[in-house]
Design a protein that fits this description.
Rossmann fold, 2 strands
Length: 85
Amino acid sequence: RPLNLMLPSGKFVGLAIEAHGLNPNAVKAMKEAGIDFSNQTSDIIDPKILNNANLVVTLCGDAADKCPMTPPHVKREPWGFDDPQ
């Protein structure tokens, strides 16, 4: 269920619990898929962005467990999978 189909007019922001920089394997895999995100950044969760969100998707169990509490109006959906590293 791609987010662009679920929320076609949405703004998507990727944030993390800790900033680690970009994973070179992820950059390579995305480039092979025709997507260049080599100039993206690894950003820490911003409470202001979180408070203005409609939906928070966590992508691994660690994030689901450690993600700050989301405000009551924010839908939270875990899409758990193993860390590819």
